[in-house]
Design a protein that fits this description.
alpha/beta; 14 helices; Rossmann fold
Length: 371
């Protein structure tokens, strides 16, 4: 079963192709979007390269594409100025031209780093996303956001740079540990929580089918998530308005990640899980959302094995002031005001641009943070 979701951006439109067996046929899909030289540099990490790299390279070569491979260390630490500098230098050493392309072959770290490198390499070259984690397939590979992290926060240095094509091969999910699948599920349920109550209800009933890699369930879950993201990106490519809704849970989550150091102790999807739970609880506390909706949303997040409280993440208490400060660094912030995506209920998210710092601090202390 193959599903294709178009992202309609005029002359920069592209397809997101979802289904099994796509890596082995990647060459025939990627070759038509390449330039005359038909040359690519595959950027991948050592884990993905070991499991799937040869298959992708062979598929491209069979389609008449010249292939070079650049392998980076796995993990969020590669999404840094140092990682960007190293990747850019290696691309230059290959003599990659502006008519050539990069193929980002990996999870969100590879996609973000390789996409940002493509955005700035010789003032910009095209690239293709081949995401290999569930999280990347439903989130970071679609929409053109590329970035690196800094000690001051996650994804604060980056660019909007749309891919030419996205290939989401569901077969690669078979090699992922359950923890990684749960991280992807956090971004899937986010779409139901922010704007599709019926999809949320379906996920409540089918969470185990998705996590057990049932192909039909995955095609529906990934397809609907990508469809919703594509619609929002088409309306608001540069996040001037509605696209900010896609950050439900992310302001809380990024603050926790910044305190944890962006390492393997807390993965991005897990941080989003906690962040969405906090967004619902904070909304309920502020009288914006029915408390029963918050309870139901948190239960659905927890059903996937995701953390939903600060105590689930770390035994040592976080400091409320530090978390508030990180929230102030969020990219949605305007005029020094705290900006959050909050909810009126399940399937009804909105952007709040005037969140009170004192109220936020009091809430975080209730959540277990130290005063």
């Amino acid at each position: 079963m193959i599903r294709t979701v178009p992202v309609g951006l005029g002359d920069r439109a592209y397809d997101v192709v979802i289904g099994p067996g796509l890596i082995d046929r990647a060459g025939e899909r990627i070759a038509p979007v390449l330039g005359k030289r038909k040359r690519v540099a595959i950027v991948t990490d050592s884990n993905v390269g070991e499991h799937h790299g040869e298959r992708l390279a062979v598929s491209l070569e069979k389609a008449g594409v010249s292939v070079d491979v650049i392998t980076i260390p796995p993990g969020e630490e590669s999404k840094s100025f140092e990682g960007l500098s190293d990747l850019s230098d290696r691309l230059l050493a290959l003599g990659l031209e502006r008519g050539d392309q990069i193929v980002a072959f990996g999870g969100g770290v590879v996609g973000d780093l390789a996409g940002f490198a493509a955005a700035i390499y010789k003032r910009g070259i095209d690239f293709v996303q081949v995401p290999t984690t569930l999280l990347a397939q439903v989130d970071s590979s679609v929409g053109g956001k590329t970035a690196i992290d800094t000690p001051r926060g996650k994804n604060l240095i980056g660019a909007f740079h749309q891919p030419r094509l996205v290939l989401a091969d569901l077969d690669v999910l078979c090699t992922l540990p359950v923890r990684e699948l749960a991280c992807g599920y956090a971004e899937i349920i986010k779409y139901g929580l922010l704007g599709d109550f019926a999809f949320f209800e379906w996920l409540e009933k089918n969470v185990h089918a998705v996590l057990e890699r049932d192909v039909d369930a995955l095609v529906r879950a990934v397809g609907r998530s990508v469809e919703m993201k594509a619609q929002i990106v088409e309306e608001d490519e540069k996040e001037a308005g509605r696209r900010a809704l896609l950050n439900l849970g992310h302001t809380f989550g990024h603050a926790i990640e910044a305190e944890m150091g962006f390492g393997d102790a807390l993965k991005h999807g897990e941080a989003v899980g906690v962040g969405m739970a906090q967004a619902f609880r904070f909304s309920a506390q502020q009288g914006l959302c029915p408390s029963q909706d918050a309870v139901r949303a948190v239960a659905a997040i927890k059903a996937a094995g995701l953390p939903t409280t600060l105590a689930d993440v770390r035994q040592e208490p976080f400091h409320a002031d530090a978390l508030v400060a990180h929230c102030g660094q969020d990219k949605k912030a305007e005029g020094g005001n705290l900006t959050f995506v909050l909810v009126r209920g399940i399937g009804d998210a909105f952007v709040a641009k005037d969140v009170d710092r004192a109220a936020l601090k009091a809430f975080l202390i209730e959540e277990g943070a130290a005063a």
